[in-house]
Amino acid sequence: MKIVRFRYRDQSRYGILEGSVIRGHRGGPFTRPDKNHVVFVPDGSEYDLARTKLLPPCQPTKIVCLGVNYRHHADELKMTLPELPLLFLKPSSAVIGPDDKIVLPPDAERIDYECELAVVMGKTARNIPEDRFADYVLGYTCFNDVTDRVAQRKDGQWTRAKGHDTFAPIGPWIDTTISPFNLQIETFVNGTVKQSGNTTDLIFGIPRLVSFITGIMTLYPGDVIATGTPEGVGPLKHGDTVEIRIEGLGTLRNSVT
């Protein structure tokens, strides 16, 4: 099932994508304790995907990201493999959706793309054992961990480098049925492949990440875990079109300005 969030008559709505048709739903797909939450059910409406503006498929309170979580990326950086997952956060204000613009900061020297598989949480999660991770995950989507590479090196910690507005493109939808354990993941810039990896190369897999992160902080419905990027990161410039393509998950496309 592909869950989309879209704009209709200046309001955001959720629906299920079937082929090129969005079937509108009442409520949202995230489990909430609020007794007034409307159950996520079809309402009989239909929308043409080609005529619909897709929004970020979730509205996270936080995005928990992984640094150096692909073996070949660690080799590329000449780094030893981390003993524990290396975590950092992106603010929710950085989120943009499909076909939105990545805005380069005026003083930026080098802004890089980083293709990533994103985990979208479906339930409130705290201290989750690895063998129960799937009970709390709604599904998966594409993510671009846009990064100011110079600021990252200068600062030592990564908040400024990773936290600019528009530095967290996500989408185009949440797939609730795909298996995340053997997926090809790629970045294309202006139609040319720049990154190509596979989730089999992850140092810390998704069950481990969900368990480790929820042992530190509570994850809420709609929160995102960005699982790290494969080798081949590189710069973006004004006028570029960057695409994150993940096998079975579709393409997240954004222009750069």
Give a written overview of the molecule.
- This protein is mainly beta and 257 residues long.
- It has two domains: 2-54, SH3 type barrels, CATH 2.30.30; 63-256, Alpha-Beta Complex (Fumarylacetoacetate hydrolase, domain 2).
- It is built from four helices and 20 strands.
- The strands form three sheets. Strands 1, 2, 3, 4, 5, 6, 7, 8, 11, 12, 14 and 17 form a twelve-stranded mixed beta sheet that branches. The chain has a five-stranded mixed beta sheet with strand order 9-20-19-15-16, with no helix packed on it.
- The radius of gyration is 18 Å and the shape is globular.
- The model has no long low-confidence stretch (mean pLDDT 94).
What is the topological layout?
Elements: E1 2-8, E2 11-18, E3 21-26, E4 41-48, E5 53-54, E6 63-67, H1 71-76, E7 86-90, E8 95-96, E9 101-102, E10 111-113, E11 115-121, E12 137-144, E13 147-148, H2 149-155, H3 159-162, E14 168-175, E15 184-189, E16 192-198, H4 206-214, E17 224-226, E18 234-236, E19 241-246, E20 250-256
Parallel strand pairs: 6-17, 8-14, 9-20
Antiparallel strand pairs: 1-2, 1-5, 1-14, 2-3, 3-4, 6-7, 10-13, 10-18, 11-12, 11-17, 12-14, 15-16, 15-19, 19-20
Structure summary:
The protein is mainly β and 257 residues long. It is built from 4 helices and 20 strands.
Question: What features would you highlight for this structure?
Answer:
mainly beta; 12-stranded mixed β-sheet; SH3 type barrels; 41% strand; Fumarylacetoacetate hydrolase, domain 2; 257 residues; 5-stranded mixed β-sheet; globular; 4 helices
